[in-house]
Amino acid sequence: MGTHDTRNPCTKLCRFDAADRCLGCFRTRAEVKHWKRLPDETKAAINARIAARGGTVSKKDGKRAKKLDKEIRKLEAKLATLRARRSDLEGPVARAAE
């Protein structure tokens, strides 16, 4: 067995950004998908890249991020509703000013 770090860096926060990088472990979608089949040298290189970046997101932080994302989605939906209501109110005011 080699001395390379070949452990799976997954933090169970498997969501991907626009660049197809996992928000938890910072691997690409392809690296996540093919992890078990990658050579040890490649796994070690990926782990070194993650470590150089500052490591992975902890499970605790990942759970907090998911909770905040859920709150943000709720607030965005509420904001959209409020904007629609405001638009409805502005419609009659704009017509009255004409």
In short:
This is DUF1289 domain-containing protein. Keywords: Coiled coil. The protein has about 100 residues and is mainly alpha-helical.
The stretches of 5 or more residues where confidence is low (pLDDT under 50) are none
Q: Total domains, how many?
A: 2
Order of helices and strands: HHH
Gross geometry: elongated
Q: Helices, strands, pairings?
A:
Elements: H1 29-33, H2 40-53, H3 59-97
Question: Can you offer a commentary on this structure?
Answer:
With 98 residues, the protein is mainly α. 59% of the residues lie in helices and 0% in strands. The chain is elongated. The termini are far apart.
Keywords:
about 100 residues, 3 helices, about 60% helix, 2 domains, mainly alpha
